[in-house]
Design brief:
Aspartate Aminotransferase, domain 2, about 400 residues, globular, seven-stranded mixed β-sheet
């Protein structure tokens, strides 16, 4: 298939044939390398979104490309009724890098959260799932029911019952968890609603509450995982160890994959036939994920994420357009000064300065560059933002 169709031709195809669930920017990207993208007119862009924390290893990392090319010429799919080495090697790598239990592979973050909900309910049948205000766990029905945002939930009611929403307050969380609770599901840093870091006190309360009643504590690390915050998994920066984590996004190095990683207590809860997926754990994506996991586990890279995250945060704080900077590692956001519109500013950054970022709301812009970003690229991004005329 040709990749030289004009932007206008693609927009016409979209109008006629694509379900209108996305508001796209008027740019057609055709090539990527590292932290750079190129459009169909040959213009170069600096990518500080990484596909929303998917390309932690950057665009077209040579190790990912080589692994996929090799595997796609050997074996692409046989289903989970048979053994394949990449899937089981990946499961071992994920378990050993984190909670030490077992792994269920799937195809996306929403699927991982759906599997985690089923896991918790299998362990405690009929139990409720406690979630936090401001959470985002996905758009499929179980994951959507765990996402207490009116604009996303209301058009699709009735939702799956059994979800309890609590404020991001330790006492409220402790009060909400009882003997009927199957799990507390939370993001250690809430990503889609603007990069809000949950306090250690809140995480301690979640662990205490779950231990008190025998419920499972599940961390949604779909966006925070794979080195994004400066450790391979965000929970490793606290003393709180969850019973399971869900991962996706950057796990496949750009290919779609998700997983639930359990600790020992939940490792054998699901039995044959309880859950499954046709495409999950396919050889091609698992080969890519093995390389991505290896790259993102490198101690020197993780130290760079912490150091360069501070450099990016310092640069963002120097901008007049930034009223607040928050986040951890290379998972950062700014709240804009009064009167500035985030979607408009993100679009202008793209079209005027060729800087790829995105708005998570009317007043917040998110920055998640590839973890391989260098100091010069961070400084370049700050310069491009500073060049925007905000009046």
């Amino acid at each position: 298939m040709s990749v030289t169709a004009s932007l206008a031709a693609l927009q016409e195809l979209e109008r006629e044939y694509a379900v209108a669930t996305y508001t796209r920017n008027p740019v057609q990207f055709v090539r990527g390398e590292g932290c750079r993208l190129w459009d169909s007119d040959g213009n170069e862009y600096l990518d500080f979104l990484a596909g929303i924390s998917v390309l932690n290893v950057g665009h077209c990392h040579p190790r990912i490309v080589d692994a996929v090319r090799d595997q796609v010429g050997r074996l692409t799919h046989v289903t989970n009724l048979y053994y394949t080495e990449p899937a089981l090697r990946l499961s071992a790598g994920l378990a050993r890098s984190s909670l030490g239990g077992k792994v269920f592979l799937c195809n996306s973050g929403a699927e991982a959260n759906e599997a985690a909900i089923k896991l918790a309910r299998r362990a405690r049948p009929g139990g409720s799932i406690v979630v936090l205000q401001g959470a985002f766990h996905g758009r499929t029905y179980g994951a959507l029911s765990a996402t207490p945002q009116e604009s996303k939930q209301a058009p699709f009611a009735p939702l799956v019952p059994g979800f309890v929403v609590v404020a991001k307050d330790p006492l409220a969380l402790l009060d909400a968890v009882d003997a009927d609770t199957a799990a507390v599901l939370l993001e250690p840093i809430q990503g889609e609603t603007g990069i809000h870091v949950l306090s250690d006190d809140l995480l301690y309360a979640a662990r205490e509450a779950c231990d008190r009643v025998g419920a499972a504590l599940v961390f949604d690390e779909i966006q925070t995982g794979m080195g994004r915050t400066g450790t391979l998994w965000a929970y490793q920066q606290t003393d709180v160890v969850p019973d399971a984590i869900t991962v996706a996004k950057a796990l496949g190095g750009g290919l779609p994959i998700g997983a639930v990683i359990t600790g020992p207590a939940l490792a054998d809860v699901l039995a044959p036939g309880d859950h499954g997926s046709t495409f999950a754990g396919g050889p091609v994506v698992c080969r890519a994920a093995l390389e991505a996991l290896s790259i993102c586990s490198d101690a020197a890279l993780l130290a760079r994420v912490q150091r360069f995250g501070e450099r990016l945060a310092t640069g963002l704080r120097s901008l007049p357009l930034a009223a607040e900077v928050r986040g951890r590692g290379l998972m950062l956001a700014i709240d804009l000064a009064d009167g500035l519109d985030a979607p408009s500013l993100a679009r202008r950054a793209l079209l005027e300065q060729r800087l790829v970022v995105n708005a998570t709301g009317p007043g917040t812009i998110r920055f998640e560059p590839p973890l391989l970003v260098c100091e010069a690229e961070i400084d370049e991004a700050i310069s491009r933002l500073a060049a925007l005329d905000v009046g």
